[in-house]
Amino acid sequence: MASDLPEYYFRVRENGALVFRLDTENRQRRIEMDQIAVANVKNGEIKPHGSHVLSEDERQVIAEWIADRRAVLAAREVDDILRTVDHLNLTSQWAQSRASDDDLETVTDALLLAMHDLRSVLVRKKADRLMKDDKG
Q1: For the chain, what are the domain ranges?
Q2: Distance (Å, rounded) from C-alpha 25 to C-alpha 2?
């Protein structure tokens, strides 16, 4: 098992990760995790932990993780939006076929406002893209 472990472990948190170096080469053959840095996905900042001085290799590994993590989060964001489209379709079907008057009274105003806001943003962004294409 020890040989299958990566050299670094990234404990994901809200804006990035805590970075640990894994060590299994000790007398007890236990996995030791020494925190070496904190990585921020939003701004790309890499801060050494405590008195640890990061090597160039460690910085490179962490920078690659940040780039990979950004790609994963971007793909998830698009997938979430596509799931929202599916959910809106399911909501339409629910409203048409199964919702009671009380159910509709509960959700109608909130849904209409959210959809109006979304439509306004989408129309404005589409117009901006069309204007940019016409100029380009």
Answers
A1: 2-83, 99-136
A2: 9
